[in-house]
User: What shape does this take?
Amino acid sequence: MKKSLTTFMVVVSAGMVFTACSDSGSDSGSAPTPAAAQVNTAGYPIVKDKVTLKFVSPKNPLAPAFGDMTFFKNLEAQSNVHIEWNNIPSDGYQEKKNLLIATNDLPDAFYNAGFSDYDLTKLGSEGTIIPLETLIDQYMPNLKALLEKRPDLKAIVTAPDGHIYSLPYAEEMNLVNMPNQMFINKTWLDQLGLKMPTTLEEYHDVLKAFKEKNPNGKGTVIPLSFWFQGWCGNEGDLLGMFGAPDVSMDDHRIVKDGKVLYAVAIPEYKEAIAYFHKWYEEGLIDPEIATVDGEKLKAKGKTADETLGSFIWWEGPEIVGQDRMKDYALLPPLKNKDGNIVIGKTNYSEYSRDSFVITKTNKSPEVTARWADQLYEAKTGIQAHWGPIGEVYKEENGKLVNLPVPEGTTAGEYRIKVAPNGPLAVTKEQFGTLVDMEPRAKQRLDELQQYYFPYQVKENYPFVFLSADDLDKVNQIETQLKEYTKQMKAKWLMEGGVDAEWDSYLKKLDQIGLQDYLTIYQKAYDEFKKAGQ
Assistant: This one.
């Protein structure tokens, strides 16, 4: 997965209070100049005399300071390069990152950078971050070989001006385009003599029974919860039952018959939100739903007494824990009122171009490039992605084999604690040859192939790189669109009123710039298809 589950690929938001976390015992002072560093272009160590680089990275609350991670200690021992980390809590990362850039208080590099395409083109053209293609050619043999073998990856990271400003990430597991699975409390179904629901109306009746019959005996049952507008575990497939499978909550772009649509501005969405408002009125949807995020959902799943009747997430144990998961079962996709199953397909890619950038203040870009290139060694990248040998893996006959997950934690939580992610590439041919797929990932893939993929819509919006001019226009529109549509979705879900306010809502979207936004993305989509990509 990308973005850790929680950020395996960093999807973070702005606006929280910032508290930085730096590792202790770091060497201070500026890094030596490249000439003084005597960079070895091959082999290890990278430098004879230790070099210190300063990196900024977001960090999940469950993760330790990066300087304390075994993975980075191993890299330092191999490379003789010390990283002085400024770990920013992920919830406040974008805000702090933007502040660092605005005040020119730049690190040597941003790791798990989380730079948007707009950031890359703007900061690249301004010189705040530097082009990397020459460094790749001269100091990054692992990445250079990968990009020669995979020109598609090179195309992904190449900006419209021809430069590469950020290093690629790849994880080819075929998991990210389906971010949601529904789970239901099977113990409660059996206790109440109910069958596994197969239709939306049967699901409604089960949730109503959970609400009214109090199966936990405490009066604290939450029939259904999910991550409202989350990147995973969201309401997208519920909306999809009405023909608006909006599972890409960070952009709301869907494609139908080659036409790019804004999923929260079509009649099917209006019908869906009016329908699920009735569920909210009946007490079937979490009363706190508008503020439920991933961490809050996990807390609700791990209360002393079971409270969740049903929930939506990437995988069940992350929410309720491995022991409690025995009470829950996967809820296969439900038929809608027409008897059809409609599953959305996200616009999330198995690839990204926001993993690592080097700034203009870096005095040792060659050292930095060689350090980052370590992560494109296959087994090193695997360990960055899932965790190091000795903690997550043992090596048998040249292959990394999973060790048991420590008791008292889930695989997802443990991964956050031991694997920093970053610039890396785990390609499909490595599974089964260099590394075993995580058991939970294999289980999820099997479930998706059996229950979800057969019903998934065929079209989604591709991973395109807009021109600098188009990115500038989109940047002026998109934030307002997201804020307004999220605000109105929460209002309509909890308070109702979508029928009365729909026309004024559409008018407001057009005033913000929705039609220009759609025109830009339609043009890019048509060009992408014309190029045969």
Summary: Confidence is low (pLDDT under 50) at residues 1-36.
